[in-house]
Amino acid sequence: MASIHDVAKEAGVSVATVSKVINNYPDVSDKTRKKVSQTIKDLKYHPNVAARGLVKGRSWTVGVFVTSPFTNPFVTELLEGIKTALQNSGYDLVLLSTRFDDDSYSFVEHCLSRNVDGVVGFGVDRDDPHLEELLKSDIPTMFVDADIRGPRAGYITTENKAGTMQAVAHLAELGHSRIAFISGELDNAVGALRHEGYLEGMKTHKLNVPESYVKVSDYSMEGGTVAMNELMELKERPTAVVCTSDMMAIGAISVIHRSGLSVPEDISVVGFDNTYYSEIFSPALTTINQNIRSIGSHAIETLITMIENTDFLPPVVTEPSNLVVRCTTAKPGGAKS
Amino acid sequence: MASIHDVAKEAGVSVATVSKVINNYPDVSDKTRKKVSQTIKDLKYHPNVAARGLVKGRSWTVGVFVTSPFTNPFVTELLEGIKTALQNSGYDLVLLSTRFDDDSYSFVEHCLSRNVDGVVGFGVDRDDPHLEELLKSDIPTMFVDADIRGPRAGYITTENKAGTMQAVAHLAELGHSRIAFISGELDNAVGALRHEGYLEGMKTHKLNVPESYVKVSDYSMEGGTVAMNELMELKERPTAVVCTSDMMAIGAISVIHRSGLSVPEDISVVGFDNTYYSEIFSPALTTINQNIRSIGSHAIETLITMIENTDFLPPVVTEPSNLVVRCTTAKPGGAKS
DNA sequence: CTGAAAGCGCTTACAG
DNA sequence: CTGAAAGCGCTTACAG
Questions:
Q1: CB B93 to CB A88 under 8 A?
Q2: Is pLDDT at B51 greater than 70 in this prediction?
Q3: Tens digits of residue pLDDT in B303-314
Q4: Looking at chain B, which residue has its C-alpha nearest residue A95?
Q5: Which residue has the higher pLDDT, B154 or A103?
Q6: Domain identity same for A43 and A105
Q7: Which of A185, A200, A87 has its CA nearest to residue A145?
Q8: A259, A265, A324, A293: CA torsion to nearest 10
Q9: B334 is a domain residue
Q10: From the list A77, A96, A99, which residue is nearest B71 (CB)?
Q11: Domain total of chain A
Q12: Best of B45, B96, B114 to disrupt the A interface by mutation (most A CBs within 10 Å)?
């Protein structure tokens, strides 16, 4: 490929001048600028990003820190949002090939040797061994759905509490009183806030919450399966369940079906996320919508602002949520009505 | 971050020597090697990849060329396989932020300016405007599920014909004779081979193929919906349908359900891909399994071989396929039996 | 407005 | 076995 020297020679100027027109510096005469621009086109010259990065100390690259698999639909849609925001930003996404099984592996050092300008993290555990090091480094970072902050790290999340309250309200208004809650871990912001939303919703509607109605599990389909199995054992079985992910809801529904009952006739189920699959799953899921793509886009936009303004304080961004009613919720005993 | 100069000074050697131990050159005394290695650890030194890449003319980076959205489960699982293969390879994946809407955008030039060592492409159309340029460049490329070849480009795919024949055989053995085929475009290898498999399977079982039984559509859920709607109009409605993607199958099933019929009681449906969702969809899909993750891994492994051996001819790799029978196929009229 | 020169952090002949 | 020097393709004070 043509280098800046080739362009300089061809255009009859110095490499410094070529560099100036590439970078849109004002102190270049119109005539020179035109000639150089033309030569750049003729030679199909494109600056070598590595060389530029070497002197500027950056890479126009955003690294991703992810532990959950891509088959997770939340992750998938997030990536779509991220991709969109990156589109005309000048930044590319690099998927650091992490060897999390290797003890001596350091995610931060990987970022440093790749000169990554910023990191977007999701599916990150509070106690991830790489987290502390990342927060201590001064690599700008935006986390999604995790309330992790640092001098250079902010996060973006959804109105978790309000969304969950809406789901409870919806069920209560349908006439349910035995409403259970299948949740991910409670010891982080997302889990805690959804739990709060559930409790407050129940309280608002003066509904009783037996201890056995709150099941903590993980966000996968298997998590929903395990939790729902326990709920089915109860003598006072719930007539409705609020889950904190769509996958959990799908798992719960499969348990209900397997035991010969129907959704929503016998038990109503609400999911969380409104992923693509909540719509194509049969029956289509009633679920709490988060704007996943827009969360992904905002994460990137915010990150880029942080990268380009050292003094921009890492923000906490909250996106709205709302309930989407589809086919998995109905009045209690709907089958017979 | 510490540079090679810091290490050299601290260890009391030249940068050339440090470079030699980093790169495991043999001509370094044991004593020196030890001291330098220790200093590297002490200083937490990690080579700057951009600088190294600048002199070596490469980046230890693989670019991805993808036009289909990540929400496509085939793409998603492929990425998982790719991620796994990349794990200890020393290469990172870079998602080039493509601006395919911008006419002056050139994917190849983007690759060149990022110094990408190779490209893995999927969801690529034969007539993609960027394709010709990519094939002409000498960037090593592996395509997935597209029979695109070039001097430096090979591809990997599945036993498309054999897999489809198995599906037809399964249905024929169940007693079906009116078997329709919902396919993606026929003018590429994947589509053509599956079509051949269908025709040959039908012939083997001496089954008739009315022209109206072959519906060409696109691989999405919508594609399946449109095609199935047309099949439902037929006076001689098929009792079984082979689809060339799971998403198409899911779309077809939703149409069948909406018209008040049941799967598999009234109409049997077979998918293709055996994606994660074929299992959690209800009813669970009978589908032709392709080893998507292993396809992703092999694509990367092959690509790396191509990158590191200039004379390694771009291969064509074919992975096995097999039918996975689940709940969407049964004897014709199964409902009444 | 233009260009010579130093430098970013590496690798690689080459000389010793 | 070791190191001085040139060079990869850029940018940036700085001098003119």
A1: no
A2: yes
A3: 999 999 998 999
A4: B93
A5: B154
A6: no
A7: A185
A8: 20
A9: no
A10: A77
A11: 3
A12: B114
Same domain, A164 and A247: yes
Asked whether residue B131 is domain-assigned, the answer is: yes
**Nucleotide nearest B49, from its CA to each C1':** C10
Give the distance from residue B288's alpha carbon to the nearest chain A alpha carbon, in angstroms.
Answer: 19
Chain B, 179-218: which CBs lie within 7 Å of strand D?
none
pLDDT for position A334: 65
Q: Do B113 and A48 touch (CB under 8 A)?
A: yes
Looking at residue B136, its pLDDT comes to: 93
A93 alpha-carbon distance from chain centroid: 15
Phi, psi of B61 (to 5 degrees): -145, 140
> Scanning every residue of chain A, which has its alpha carbon at the shortest distance from the alpha carbon of B220?
A280
Provide the residue range defining the domain that includes A209. Answer: 160-290
Residue whose pair of structure tokens reads 């269908």 in the numeric block: B198
Q: Which nucleotides of chain C have an atom under 7 angstroms from any protein CB? A: 1-5, 7-13
Nearest C-alpha of chain B: how many angstroms from A48?
A: 5
B274-295 average pLDDT score: 92
Residues A250 and A103 both lie in one domain: no
Instruction: Specify whether A69 is located in the same domain as A128.
Output: yes
Residue B24 and residue B40 in one domain: yes
Using the beta-carbon criterion (under 8 Å), do A61 and B88 form an inter-chain contact?
A: no
Q: Which of B51, B88, B90 sits opposite A54 (nearest CB)?
A: B51
A285 and A169 in a common domain? yes
Same domain, A218 and A275: yes
Report the CATH number that the domain containing residue B172 is assigned in CATH.
Answer: 3.40.50.2300
Distance CA B153, CA B298 (A): 14
Residue A327 domain-assigned (yes or no)? no
State how far Cα B78 lies from the chain centre.
Answer: 5
Q: Could you tell me which residues come within 8 angstroms of residue B202 by beta carbon, excluding any fewer than 6 positions away?
A: B168, B179, B208, B209
Q: What is the pLDDT of residues B156-215, one digit of tens each?
A: 999 999 999 999 999 999 999 999 999 999 988 899 999 999 999 999 999 999 999 999
**B39: CATH:** 1.10.260.40
Nearest amino-acid residue to C6, taking CA and C1':
A55
- Is residue A243, in this structure, part of any structural domain at all? yes
- Rounded to a whole number of angstroms, the distance from the CA of B14 to the nearest CA of chain A is 21
pLDDT of B12 > 50? The answer is yes
- If asked whether residues A253 and A164 sit together in one domain, one would say yes
B138 within 8 A of B177, measured Cβ to Cβ: no
Provide block-wise average pLDDT over 10 residues at a time, chain A (337 residues).
92 95 93 94 93 95 91 91 93 90 89 96 89 94 94 96 98 98 93 97 97 95 94 97 96 91 96 90 93 96 95 95 97 66
Q: Given an 8 Å threshold on Cβ–Cβ distance, is B50 in contact with A47?
A: no
Of the candidates A51, A110, A282, the beta carbon closest to that of B54 is on A51
Decide if B92 and A97 are in contact by the 8 Å CB cutoff: yes
Give the model's pLDDT for residue A337. Answer: 38
Q: Contacts by A280-283 with C-beta closer than 8 Å and gap 24+? A: A280/B221, A280/B250, A280/B254, A280/B281, A281/A246, A281/A250, A281/B280, A281/B281, A281/B282, A282/B253, A282/B254, A282/B257, A282/B281, A282/B282, A283/A253, A283/A326, A283/A327, A283/A328
**Mean pLDDT computed over B90-95:** 95
For residue A96 the two structure tokens come to: 């650091």
pLDDT tens digits along A99-126: 888 888 999 999 999 999 999 999 888 8
